[in-house]
Write a structure and sequence with these properties.
alpha+beta
Length: 278
């Protein structure tokens, strides 16, 4: 049986490392866990990580952009996650709904996720679909913004707002993270708000905001591509250069200054949850 979870986990593990990682599992024996990979950078700044795993005839591709809810501002929350939804709509060479269809027709799976520090998209496909999935990802990295319309944006605004209502506002204990983060981080700290954002902020977002966000954060110079699975190295490198090498650099993204938070005393919080039961 093809182990999709194994390959997907390996891709994300490699993505998080980006350097040699060794972990002692037994100090007495000195056993180590080592993941071998190759890392290089394209001329446009895209970082690439390759990891071989030929245990199954599949490949997993993950692209992580260095932008999460930490790049938002108070009053403009939820935009990184909203933009994640926009990337699944269409791009210049991939019509509406075809991104999902092409991956699924090939027997693959796909998804994306937004966190506080990054946004990640991934696909797991049979190895003969490698070129297709590289093309799909490169098209939305380089050629998305001209396809964004008011109607498409409004549709995803509604989707994300309903997601917040379902998973947070009307869900038992849904506000737990919100309560804790508000108490732990100062208002000016980029971890003070939730990734899903506030409804009023989501409602006020515009198409121009989308274009500005894309131009600032979704360039190859703010992304890392990880390919794990059953592939030939030179062939994979040639395909990555073919589809991603022509994408131009965008704005330079400056690293955020660390804002350490110290919990100087115990804080006890009380929040009335209308949906939680004892």
């Amino acid at each position: 049986m093809i182990n999709l979870k194994k390959i997907t986990l390996m891709a994300f593990t490699t993505l998080g490392l980006l350097a040699f990682v060794a972990c002692k599992t037994d100090k007495a024996s000195g056993d180590k866990l080592a993941i071998e990979f190759e890392k290089y950078t394209l001329d446009n700044g895209l970082q690439v990580v390759l990891h071989h795993d030929k245990s199954d005839p599949i490949v997993s591709l993950a692209i992580q952009y260095g932008v999460g809810s930490n790049r938002e501002k108070t009053g403009r929350t939820g935009f990184a996650h909203l933009f994640e939804h926009m990337l699944f709509q269409e791009s210049e060479n991939v019509p509406q709904d075809q991104f999902f269809k092409k991956i699924q027709d090939a027997g693959g799976t796909l998804n994306g996720g937004t966190g506080k520090d990054a946004t990640t998209y991934y696909e797991v496909v049979p190895k003969n679909a490698l070129e297709m999935v590289l093309w799909l990802e490169s098209d939305r990295m380089g050629y998305l913004i001209n396809t964004v319309t008011e109607a498409a944006f409004y549709n995803q605004q509604e989707v994300v707002q309903n997601e917040k209502r379902q998973r947070v506002d009307n869900n038992p204990y849904g506000h737990t993270g919100w309560v804790i983060d508000k108490a732990l981080y100062p208002e000016s700290h980029p971890y003070n708000w939730q990734v899903i954002g506030e409804l009023v902020d989501l409602q006020s977002a515009t198409v121009e905001d989308v274009k500005e966000f894309y131009d600032k954060f979704y360039g190859p110079n703010n992304a890392t591509l990880v390919l794990a699975g059953d592939f030939e190295t030179e062939e994979a490198k040639a395909l990555i250069e073919k589809y991603f090498g022509e994408i131009k650099r965008r704005q330079e993204v400056e690293p955020l200054e660390p804002q350490p938070v110290t919990l100087a005393e115990t804080k006890r919080l009380y929040h009335e949850d209308n949906f939680a039961t004892a």
